[in-house]
Amino acid sequence: MQDWDLTSVGFVLIGSSITVAGSIIGVMLLGVPIPLAPFLLLTTAVLVVLSAALIVFSMPKSPPIGG
Fold this sequence. Notes:
Structural class: mainly alpha
Helix content: 55-70%
Strand content: under 5%
Largest sheet: none
Radius of gyration: 17 Å
Number of strands: 0
Shape: elongated
Distance between the termini: 37 Å
Order of helices and strands: HH
Number of helices: 2
């Protein structure tokens, strides 16, 4: 089993954040009142942005073509 690098952690974090946000929205559409829903959705949105930045900045940079 390989070690976890920052890219793997970012992919797991972004996937789970999108899943949680979708579950919260689905439960709200079914009519179940969730008092902390705005805070939870804002938190998942922040986690998606942070994990996307983590993925982008942790991937190795390729050398310029023709240089």
